[in-house]
Amino acid sequence: MKLDNTISAVITGGASGLGEATARALAAKGVKVAVFDLNEQKGEAVAQELGGVFCKVNVTDEASVDAGFEKARAAIGQERILVNCAGTGNAIKTASRSKEDGSIKHFPLDAFNAIIQINLVGTFRCIAKSAAGMLSLDPTEDGDRGVIINTASVAAEDGQIGQAAYSASKGGVVGMTLPIARDLMGEAIRVNTILPGIFNTPLLAAAPQNVKDALSASVPFPKRLGNPPEYASLALTMIENGYFNGEDVRLDGGIRMAPR
After folding, report:
1. Residue 102: which region, alpha, beta or left (left: phi > 0; alpha: psi -120 to 50)?
2. Which of 55, 64, 221, 238 has the fewest CB atoms within 10 Å, i.e. the most exposed one?
3. What keywords is this UniProt entry annotated with (predicted)?
């Protein structure tokens, strides 16, 4: 897909981190962007700077997602690109014993479900609604009607201790990529997923420097955290390369996560 000012894009989680970097990279190509996020202050600032539109969206709420797409399409037109970056995680063992008193507890199911709802169901909700909108468009000159990029994680393949919910949610994103690509292949809509490793995002911003140094040292090469523009670069490659479809690609400096 050729990227220019005739193309519109929706980026979930677009107010910061990987989503913000992708919104900026798309806007630099002339693409009109809609930033979906819960952070109004940051989201409005990013959208205004890029000449786009901000939509306050909770991906776990159907009415909120519907309202977001309605607002975005009214402002910049029907999107041909969807990049799903909205997500979160937690770290809770499946079952554990307290070191203080020996009491036993298990992973609260509501906490498990919350991660699934945001990372997996929320991603699919946006995919389904965006794809339905893309079907109303004619294909571009290069044959694409639309492109969808999802964000999983290396935890989908080598999740660490305490990451049962997170790994399950991201594994689900990986698992649904090819079936969705097959669902949409007859409609000229391509679907791919990126599995980032350890990236320098707001999630790590508050971490002590020694923690960041240790994480950087665990990456085979280059020995550093990933930078959000590197994610954005791969997302744009997946969008612009018309033969990229149904793929799940790790972007991780060669890391394979240890148990902890």
Report:
1. left
2. 221
3. Oxidoreductase
